[in-house]
Design a protein that fits this description.
Elements lengths: L8 E4 L8 E7 L3 E4 L4 E6 L12 E6 L2 E2 L3 E5 L4 E3 L1 E5 L5 E5 L9
Antiparallel strand pairs: 1-2, 1-7, 2-3, 3-6, 4-5, 7-8, 9-10
């Protein structure tokens, strides 16, 4: 079970975008793509054959961040937090915050 999943609210804890918060768009092996974080300018050629047709120009694009550079956002404490796991009485394994033990999903 992965500690960071798509749709989680995260905060960047190191690097150029330190302190930025956003939602995880995509999870790769050891990297994640976070909405409006680690943006770069990409020079893109137009492609009229693509569907939908892609215009040319300079576009902003989010690049992946290593998972060690982000932490999950705990709305109860309003701080970055670490993730732990708990096994419930019915045998399910769920993610929980390390600071207060609150579960992320029911």
């Amino acid at each position: 079970m992965k500690k960071i999943r798509k749709g989680d609210q995260v905060v960047v804890i190191s690097g150029r975008d330190k302190g930025a918060r956003g939602t995880v768009i995509r999870v790769l092996e050891e990297h994640v793509v976070v909405e409006n974080v680690n943006k770069v300018k990409k020079h893109q050629k137009p492609n009229p054959q693509a569907s939908p047709p892609r215009p040319g120009g300079i576009v902003d694009k989010e690049m992946p961040l290593h998972v060690s550079k982000i932490a999950i956002w705990n709305p109860a404490t309003k701080k970055a937090d670490r993730i732990g796991f708990k096994t419930l009485a019915d045998g399910r394994k769920v993610r929980c915050f390390r600071s207060n033990g609150e579960m992320l999903e029911a």
